[in-house]
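Backbone-to-sequence.
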């Protein structure tokens, strides 16, 4: 296996998990973030990674602020929230070489368009992941259960660069599959998040609590159907049955889980509603598809965002 120079932009739970696993596999990894307590903890004791099999400290990993590095990576993994993509990339634009591959595994839509402002489309890789991760505290991440990655170049070309990135991810046991139909997977995940994230954010319920009423489960499935209809009308062969099965499974199995959008609401942080429900509504309008439930939830979460922003400003 050939090793890669890898930078991870956005070293929260997911970024730290991926960076830690890749460093364990022998790659040269730099975590880039502005969470100073997290960076300090990793610098002092390494990254504490709690997996199903054991807990270990990964010490062969760098954790620094954007302005503190000038090392150009072969691969940049992007894990910032979609609304921060452009600002985050602006802060590390000096690291983006002519051959740097940028892989986004972020939630929502519009990430590829933002990345294209910084690197050629031929250098952009896009995908989805089902790996779970939680930030336990500064310098400490947990991940329980298996996950996988589906990814492809944004322009659809299977290049040697795509193969090399997949090989690096698989060397870390991250189960990466090169998938020509990756946009279907992306839209299916958008549908899943548009349903569960927004409903939980508005109601303050955990995912499993949506099963308390048949109406709430039905609402989630209706939102998913609207989003998949937009995808299909846009020429993407996303599968509603796959998405609906995943939603029902989550409601039945994800006991006590607070989706990221609900976590943001509770912490009075701005949510990713524009990259998920808001982006779907925008595409739907452009192709004249009606998405009333998705749009209503977007408006309600925007109101919560505005309320939280007003409270923080006082």
């Amino acid at each position: 296996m050939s090793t890669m120079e890898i930078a991870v932009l956005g070293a929260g739970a997911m970024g730290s998990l991926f960076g830690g696993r890749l460093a364990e596999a022998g790659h040269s990894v730099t975590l880039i973030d502005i969470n100073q307590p997290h960076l300090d903890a990793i610098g002092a004791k390494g990254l504490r990674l709690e997996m199903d099999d054991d807990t270990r400290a990964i010490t062969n990993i760098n954790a620094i602020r954007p302005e503190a590095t000038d090392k150009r990576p072969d691969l940049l993994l992007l894990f910032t929230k979609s609304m921060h993509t452009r600002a985050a990339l602006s802060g590390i634009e000096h690291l983006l070489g002519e051959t740097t591959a940028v892989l986004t595994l972020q939630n929502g839509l519009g990430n590829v368009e933002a990345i294209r402002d910084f690197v050629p489309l031929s250098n952009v890789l896009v995908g989805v992941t089902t790996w779970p991760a939680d930030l336990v505290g500064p310098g400490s991440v947990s991940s329980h259960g298996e996950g996988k990655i589906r990814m492809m170049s944004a322009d659809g070309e299977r290049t040697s660069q795509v193969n090399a990135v997949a090989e690096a991810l698989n060397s870390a046991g991250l189960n990466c599959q090169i998938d020509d139909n990756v946009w279907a997977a992306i839209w299916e995940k958008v549908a899943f998040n548009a349903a569960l994230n927004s409903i939980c954010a508005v109601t303050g319920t955990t995912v499993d609590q949506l099963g308390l009423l048949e109406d709430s489960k039905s609402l989630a499935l209706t939102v998913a159907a609207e989003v998949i209809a937009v995808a299909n009308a846009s020429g993407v062969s996303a599968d509603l049955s796959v998405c609906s099965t995943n939603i029902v499974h989550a409601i039945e199995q994800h006991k006590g889980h607070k989706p990221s959008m609900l976590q943001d609401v509770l912490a009075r942080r701005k949510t990713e509603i524009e990259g998920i429900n808001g982006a779907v509504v925008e595409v739907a309008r452009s192709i004249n598809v009606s998405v009333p439930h998705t749009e209503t939830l977007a408006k309600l979460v925007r109101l919560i965002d505005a309320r939280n922003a007003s409270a923080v400003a006082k």
